[in-house]
Structure formats: structure tokens, C-alpha cells
Amino acid sequence: MKQNSLLDQLRRVLSILLNLVVVRMEPIAIRMSWEAVGEQTLTFYTENSNLFSAAVCLLVAVCQLWALLSGRALPRWVKRLKFIAACCLTLTFLTVVFVLAPYYPDEGGVVFLLTESSMLYHHLLNPVLVFVSFVFLEREPRLPARNIPLALVPTAIYGSIALWANYQRLWTGPYPFLLVYEQTPRQTVLWCACILAGNLICAALVWWLGGNSRKRR
């Protein structure tokens, strides 16, 4: 029992550290994004999901410190937010590697998209740190499986706004699959279905890897 208690405390300390690293890196990354594309920064799913995740990481760090001092568990609603953030950034990473990289082979492809400027933080470091902290360090309290579909909410909201803005010609992209006037309606529907399905599969995997499927003793 003592070993478990010490292990829990170590996990909380490491969780605090990793979450604070994300919080520290996000101002650096978002400044780079703003310097590169200005106000268009806020049209990207990547930047919005990273800003959301940084805010959640700050909340988790504060709550983990409180849990460490009080001996109580991380509030379930806070872990639920971290789960959603982890799913958003995991989706970002997988989309970069398997969807966006093939569009930019002449610019360095996946290496360019994972290492250049703010993309080093937003496409690689932040997703990895948020995923690792959620899966390995924030395993309690467990989340019921009914939380899995909640991970689709940010993606659905962003997608709805982005598609409407592209249809109204207020935005151009910023992703190739949002260019509604350069593809057929069927292609747009298929892209939406594939991304949401991938998001759901990703969420289920993150939920499972986080130990949430374990039976209570």
C-alpha cells in the first residue's frame, strides 16, 4: 500500500511537470504562428486545439498539486477535459503524418511538418507530452466509456465553423480537405465522415491506453 502511495505521488509530480512544460511552450509556439500568418492563426484546428490543451494542462497542474497536498484524487471533470485535449492533439499528430504530409512532399513532407518553427511544438512536442501525461501519469480516476464520444465535440464544432466559412468564402482552407469549391460535395462529406470516424477510433484508443477499461476491484 505504501509503494502504491509513493507511486501515485511520483506520478502526480511528473504529471505536474509535464503539464507545466506544455503551458510554458505554448506562448512560444503561438507567437511563432502569429508572426507567420497573423490573425489567420485562429483559423487552424492545430492552433486552437493547442491553446485549449495548454489551458487544460494548466488546470490539471493546479489540481494535481492540490491532490498531492490533500491526498485526494484528481477531479473527474478535470480528467475528462484532459482526455478531450489528448484526443484533439493525437488527432492533430495523426492528421499531420497521414493526411497533410502527402500534400507537401516537395517541402519536406512529414519531417518539415513536425519540426519547422511552431509546428515542432504544435504538431509534435505538445501532442506527445499531453498523450504521455494522460496515458501514463493521470490514470485515476477512471472515465466511463460514455466519455469517448465527447472527444468529437471540438472537432465537430471546428469543422462546422470552417466548412461554413469556406462555403461563405470567408476562409480559404486552411486545410486542403476544407476547400469546398475545389472538390465535390461527395468528397467533402467523405472527408468529414473519415475525420470524425478517425477521431472516434483515436478517442477509444486513448481511453483504453489510459487504463480506463480496467475492472474495479
Task: Give the helix/strand layout.
Blueprint: H1 2-37, H2 45-70, H3 76-100, H4 109-115, H5 119-137, H6 152-167, H7 185-209
Helix pairs in contact: 1-2, 1-5, 2-3, 2-5, 3-5, 3-7, 4-5, 6-7
Keywords: Membrane, Transmembrane, Transmembrane helix
Transmembrane segments: 50-69, 81-104, 119-137, 149-168, 188-209
Protein name: Pr6Pr family membrane protein
Quick overview:
With 217 residues, the chain is mainly alpha-helical.
Walkthrough of the structure:
With about 220 residues, the chain is mainly α. It has one domain (about 1-210). The protein is about 70% helix and about 0% strand. The chain has seven helices and no strands. Helix 3 (about 75-100) crosses helix 7 and helix 4 crosses helix 5 (about 120-135). The model has no long low-confidence stretch (mean pLDDT about 95).
Low-confidence stretches: none
Distance separating the two termini? 15 Å
Strand content: under 5%
Q: Write down the oligomeric state.
A: single chain
String of helices and strands = HHHHHHH
Tell me the major beta sheet.
Answer: none
Structural shape: globular
Structural class: mainly alpha
Domain count, please report it: 1
Radius of gyration over C-alpha positions, nearest whole angstrom: 18 Å
| Helix share, percent | over 70%
Mean pLDDT: 93
The overall strand count is 0
Helical stretch count?
Answer: 7
